[in-house]
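Tutorial handout. Part one gives the primary structure; part two gives the three-dimensional structure as tokens.
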Amino acid sequence: MTTPTAESGHPKAIDTPPRRPGPAGSVIKEDLHSALVDKLGLAIVTKEYPPQSLIHMADLEERFAVSRSVVREAIRVLSSMGLVASKRRLGTVVQAEREWNLFDAAVIRWRLASDQRLEQLRSLSDLRVAIEPHAARLAAQHASSSTASDIVGLSARMWAAAQVGQIEEFLELDIEFHSLVLAASGNPMFAQLHSLVTEILVGRTEHGLMPLTPDHKALQFHVDVATAIQHGDADGAQAAMAKIVYQSIEESSTIWDKAHPGDQD
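Part two.
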């Protein structure tokens, strides 16, 4: 059992949010707690805190200049994600990756921020391939005419945003498109996976794994999905959604390989 030190890769102190005037102590505390959760979660995922290492609350209080209650709450949240566990006579112990909740949106975000982001993206994309095409198939079978029209409208707005280079708007529309298809499947479990897809789309954009301008074929695939859902074409919706996911895998891998030629498989 090891305890990380500053020399061995202990995470640096966080910049705590500035204190705002007025009776907003609870808001400030929440900001500090969220910042600490984010910093520690990323440190664990990137192995700055390796598995089986100990996390001491007193060290966190001093390093991050936060109260014991803020530290306790952060540890509680990380424990709920499976990143740490309280062990008798030892204290707070970092868990191995097999214990983590890999479906948690924050864990996905931290893994995408690590140097293993392409591997994480491929893993998530494998999950998307298994889920989203079938969700699109179900949407073609069960979506109301109103919902189908909304999906068609989103695909058109995505195309328009891409044409004028409004990348931020394009990302928001892309997230909304995929979330609506998952919801339109009629399967509530699929619908709840929207946060997973959102983190994938945001992560690709934030970490430079998206083309500078959306690919024309990818835009057309979104239109094809929407049109197939509107026409009740289950096979067509499934096939077009599969093309979207495979296209994203290909794009991300190509961009990564160009940026990291020495890391190619």
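Part three, for discussion. Residues 5-27 have pLDDT under 50 and may be disordered. The radius of gyration is 21 Å.
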